[in-house]
Amino acid sequence: MTKNKSHIVLKTQDLAIGYTSKKEKTVIASNINIKLHKGELVGLIGANGIGKSTLLRTLTSVQRKLDGNITINNTSLENYSNINLAKVLSLVLTESLGSKNLTVFELVALGRQPYTNWVGSLTSKDLQVINQSLFQTNIDDLKHKKCYELSDGQLQKVMIARALAQDTDLIILDEPTTHLDMYHKAYILKLLQNLAKETNKTILFSSHEIDLAIQLCDTLIVMTKDTVITGQPSNLIDKGTFNDLFPQDLIVFDNKTGSFRVKK
Hints:
The protein is α/β, with parallel strands linked by helices. The protein has helices spanning about 50-60, 80-85, 105-110, 125-135, 150-165, 180-200, 210-215, 235-240, and strands spanning about 10-20, 25-35, 40-45, 65-70, 75, 90, 170-175, 200-205, 220-225, 230, 250-255, 260.
């Protein structure tokens, strides 16, 4: 896949993530050095409990970093106001909606909040962006449906459309394929791949669908108990990065097929 190396959207330097309390500091991972370029689809993978969500929360300023630097578009994350951060970074979480009584159009329109005036009026440009987002996620026919009427797969597409309507350079998704069947897991990740290519946005998602991520992503961030490694999937396979991702008593990584299999 072709990468646009002309601009680094997200960069970390010697980043350390974890938790602090009055008594101690717990480091989940350190020396994290990531460079994500414009138009890349990036998968964050690793075993359960390894710290993927902690990393995403830190990158999105939901959680404080322990050390190091995070920059978005060459500006330190700490220097963004909430409103300006919302214009460069959009976030899709797995948490349930506060109100599913909204229509699909109304929910996607919420993505325009960083740009609307204090009464929230939508301009012709806002409407154009919203309708384009509905079209790009293939849910234009659902725009008048209530969100409680949607399947999990449809609702996930609506959440992605809302992030697109926010019109940010960087979209971060936490486990976007949770609760979906195999077909819809592949559908959502393929949709993200197409959107990164078509919109030139940088899309970062965490996932347990490692085989799909290897096939579809431009770049992978692999978290292990010892380190955080970034690279193209083919290069990571050659380096044996996936061989020790999980205990080998049950599953092993097949370098030839680029996928995991159950050990016989």
